[in-house]
Amino acid sequence: MVSAKTFATAAVFLVIGLVVGIFISPVVMPAPKPQIVSIKFVLDWAIQGPQAPFIVALEKGYFADEGLAVTVDRGYGSADAITKVASGVYQMGYGSLDALIEFNVKNPGKELMAVYVVLNKPPYSVITLKNKGINSVKDLEGKKIGAPEGDAPRRLFPVLARATGVDQSKIQWVSMSPPLREPSLVQGEVDAITGFYFTAYLNLVALKVDPSQIVAFKYTDFGVELYGNAIIVRKDFMQSNPDAVARFVRAVNNALKEVINDPSKAADYVKLRDPLVDRDVEYQRLQLALKDNILTEEVRRNGLGAVDRARLEKTIEAVVTSFGLSRKPAPEEIFTDRFLPPKEERTI
């Protein structure tokens, strides 16, 4: 039988052991949350279907989940977006690689960097109507083509002309504002127009043009090696906030995969963000962008967001030649893959 004294002694040691155990046990602390970083982001154009990845990332909280306080503003063209990012008004933006290449060459010391390509192929095209009798790019010789002077497809038409043997001296360009582009084609003031296919096509349909009468010569169908739009960032912000840039890219990558899986729902978010847009039109625009510009064979092979170095070199060469730039920058001056999520997270 255990004596009362022995029992009391054991109890004392038990209490001491428990107390000591409490003090020497490791304390499990919750993982620290990432520091919240504010990012001002400017789009290339209005809030439309092709801009859905950024809207979904914002509306569904993907940016917030990454510890980012992001504001997304509409833009007025890639050149405008790039200029605003370079000025410091925005830390990041969305614009075409051709506009970025031109800016970097012309503004040494202020260069920006692309970190994630959304449009693997640009939507650049020449569009006409069947009654114009233009059945090939070569048939554009002797015709009038309408477009704004700063229109990217117009400025890069020399690339298409070289690829198809078109004599550019036989092309008559008619300058106009964007709202007059499609109406001028329908009214017969010009024989063709240049523009983004997913915009010009839907604008023509909205003007009651029979879709079967629309003829499009998409630049990438003729071996033109160009990349489209990408996320761009100021170098100083990229260097001082590398983790924030990586988190931003990860959020957009996740949102883009969701857009691909359910474009109809993505169009709902576009409508939620801008109640004035026509939800069904933006759904169609998004579907066109996914089919022609985002879900390419290269993307299925290399994953979302990445570039092929050899193709990027051809893009740079084409832009430098067409724009008459003073030098040809190296691919590393235009794009970096250091912020891309692992390939398995970008595979579709």
UniProtKB/TrEMBL annotation:
Keywords: Iron, Metal-binding, Pyridoxal phosphate, Thiamine biosynthesis, Transferase. InterPro entries: NMT1/THI5, SsuA/THI5. GO terms for molecular function: metal ion binding; transferase activity. Pfam families: NMT1 (PF09084). It catalyses: N(6)-(pyridoxal phosphate)-L-lysyl-[4-amino-5-hydroxymethyl-2-methylpyrimidine phosphate synthase] + L-histidyl-[4-amino-5-hydroxymethyl-2-methylpyrimidine phosphate synthase] + 2 Fe(3+) + 4 H2O = L-lysyl-[4-amino-5-hydroxymethyl-2-methylpyrimidine phosphate synthase] + (2S)-2-amino-5-hydroxy-4-oxopentanoyl-[4-amino-5-hydroxymethyl-2-methylpyrimidine phosphate synthase] + 4-amino-2-methyl-5-(phosphooxymethyl)pyrimidine + 3-oxopropanoate + 2 Fe(2+) + 2 H(+). Residues 52-266 form the SsuA/THI5-like domain. It comes from the Archaea. GO terms for biological process: thiamine biosynthetic process. Pathway: Cofactor biosynthesis; thiamine diphosphate biosynthesis. SUPFAM superfamilies: Periplasmic binding protein-like II (SSF53850). Responsible for the formation of the pyrimidine heterocycle in the thiamine biosynthesis pathway. Catalyzes the formation of hydroxymethylpyrimidine phosphate (HMP-P) from histidine and pyridoxal phosphate (PLP). The protein uses PLP and the active site histidine to form HMP-P, generating an inactive enzyme. The enzyme can only undergo a single turnover, which suggests it is a suicide enzyme. Belongs to the NMT1/THI5 family. Homodimer. This is Thiamine pyrimidine synthase.
